[in-house]
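Before surveying the methods themselves, let us examine one representative protein, written as a sequence plus integers encoding its fold.
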Amino acid sequence: MNASPATPASPGPSGAPDIAALETQERQLTLRQFTYSDAWTLGSMLVELARERHAPVAIDIRRGGQQLFHSALPGSSADNDAWIDRKRRVVERYGESSLLVGSRFRAKGTTFEESSRLDPDRYAAHGGSFPIRVKGAGVIGTVTVSGLPQAEDHAMVVEALTRLMST
């Protein structure tokens, strides 16, 4: 993949990285390609990270409308799959991570739920879903983790994408 790892994001007052740090992460985590094999590798990395941390998460990777990888670890539930769908829809709509979208609303003194005019049963701007961006193609898919606090879901995805880029 690529050789430059993403810069760790500094947490803001809410414990989540600040907007500038999130934007930097997204620029840095642009892949040269994203194949079926890459989806398997990324998903396997996330499963391994979750197992090491005993994290009760569900993991989802999609390219376009196709689900390329899904795993549910012990302690996760169908609710995590519903959260995955809601966070993923935010990334698909805005082309940015669900944490960045939610952070932008909070920076304006409001919330995504109050101001987006989108159905909160279908969209959730909570951390954990990240765009899969390919150089020259833009956003081609999503990778999502659900089951931890939103900043931790986001951080796990960023860590795995950073590892994938260094392979």
Q: What stands out?
A: Residues 1-5 have pLDDT under 50 and may be disordered. The longest strand covers residues 138-146.
